[in-house]
Amino acid sequence: MDIFRNPNFVKLFFAALASQMGTTIGNMAFAFYLLEHFSNQPYYATLAELMYSLPTIFVFFIVGVVADKFDRKKVAENCDWVRAGLTVLLFGSLFIHSVPLIFFILFLRSAVTKFFFPAENSLVQGILKKEQYAQAAGLNQILFSLFMVFGVGLGALAYKTVGIHGAVVVDFISFVASGLLIRACKIPKHARLPNGNVSWKEISISGAAKDFKEGILYIYRNKLLASLIFGFFVFGFVSGGFAILPMFTMKYKYSPDNYELYASFFAIALGVGLIAGSAIAAYLSGKVKTYKLMVFPIFIASTLVFVLGFTDTLSIYLAAVFLLGICIGPVNVAIGGWMPKIVHPRLMGRVSGWIDPMMMFAQSLTLGAIALLFPKIVVSIDYLYYGMGMIILAVSIFYAMTLPKLSRTAAAQESSSGPLRKKKSEINSAL
């Protein structure tokens, strides 16, 4: 593929791979660590997941501004160095067995991570051609799918072989490798600083509030973009459920003694399905309207989630998970290829900075609710699956009612105004 002839993209791609590895392996290892040492207190594992999503609420209003105002390459690189340092502190805190301190460091490390992906995502947009956006989205989806396949298994393997301390060391090495790869990139200034040089002295609370408002207005005035962002928010509820429910399902329903192994089977089934779904989406992307790659798979996914709660047979459960992955793949590819086409590069950081907060806020609410409700009030995991199925079904109906009209309107505006006038109008509307 031509996209891999771009050395900057190759380095950023593998930097994202290393960064994701540093996040996934440690997170999974901690989940197994807490489930083993506090098996009668499952809310500990839920709280650990909450430490990965909750920080978004505290930093979301400056994440996008930082990605747009400062050197995006330095922002992404420095995120890796800071996370590496926090991982060293995490390694030391494990020896004193202080769960509150461990949670606090996980919280800080996750807060820093929130700055990495908007900056890295904006860099990718700046170094690729418009026709390569869908390819990049497909590759990122495959990368995510690979971690779905191997992430839980690698976390379980690391925990069983080198222990929680060894898993933390893997985290440290991954963050350092990501930082070195980003430093090696030779990215032009217009991609790193699309808004020109800005110093810390020029940043103020009022200025940050103005930039924050600018991002909100840009999304609000672009109805298609607003619909996609709303979808991310709703998907956050589902993401929160799937962050912890598979492990709970295996431990408390299917295999209490071998839940690590069967949780890995869940990840493999979902990941392989995502890869297959991404391949199908790549084949259909030029033949099918983008919104159709979202509406129909989301509707089918809602029925499959109901199956997850209804069945008591592990083979049927895993088969439904595989089919669910096939449905999610096209949705992620469609959104990932659509977003860069409708967002001006000057505002990509602020728009990207809204996606994670919306998802993480919803995810935090879900994890908090699970920690409070299960197993004291909601004694059956099945009802949690039914709730997620209803949410996904509602999203499919919403998109079926809105996306066809909005996509036609966006296409008509682009063909009538031309790309240059369209870019100018986007800037003016945002301002």
From TrEMBL:
One of its GO terms (molecular function) is transmembrane transporter activity. It is a multi-pass membrane protein. InterPro entries: Drug_antiport, MFS, MFS_dom, MFS_trans_sf. It is found in: Cell membrane. PROSITE patterns: MFS (PS50850). It holds the Pfam family MFS_1. SUPFAM superfamilies: MFS general substrate transporter. Keywords: Cell membrane, Membrane, Transmembrane, Transmembrane helix, Transport. It comes from the Bacteria. GO terms for cellular component: plasma membrane. Residues 224-431 form the Major facilitator superfamily (MFS) profile domain. Its main location: membrane. Coiled coil: none annotated. The chain crosses the membrane at residues 12-35, 47-67, 87-108, 137-158, 164-182, 224-249, 261-284, 291-310, 316-338, 359-377, 383-401. This is MFS transporter.
